[in-house]
Amino acid sequence: MLPGFGGLLRWLLPIVAAAIFAVAGLVILWWFLEPIADSLGVPADERIDIVRVYLLTVGGGLLIWQVSIANRRAASAERVAELTALGNITGRLSAAIEHLGSGEALVRIGGIYELHHIAGDAADYRTTVLELLRAHLEGIADSVSEVAEISSQRSVEYETVLRVIRQMYVERGVYYEEEENAEDGG
To answer: If you compute the radius of gyration of the chain from its CA atoms, what whole number of angstroms results?
Structure first.
């Protein structure tokens, strides 16, 4: 079978079946209509009007059927797109968390900015990103006995996390508690 032929067959088969059904219906209608029309004395032009109404009804039904099929396919494609976007965000989040656990300060700083971008791209993940940044900030502070003893690399990382959190709250006006309260209705 040729590539792409299955998709064509899926569209063509129902249309051919509907056309056969319409023609068969027309033949049966004409077969039943003629004796009845003759016995009632219905002129030929009115018989043709009855056939036209039948064809319009069948055509309208086919149109509605095709629209419903197109709607189902569009809904399916939209769902696939949503799942793909969710998978992309989840993959990005996993990579950022992995970068936060790196032994190199520059990779960890990159992970911090990755989380910042995820929070900007996906509102549903903002609270998660904030919790991850807060936990990372606590991990940095806990890794030394006093804040004054933080090495220069740790200091840059610590300041980066604080700057990203400040940007998320102050500069962009993102207030997570207010968003949660608004969703809860209180």
So the answer is: 33
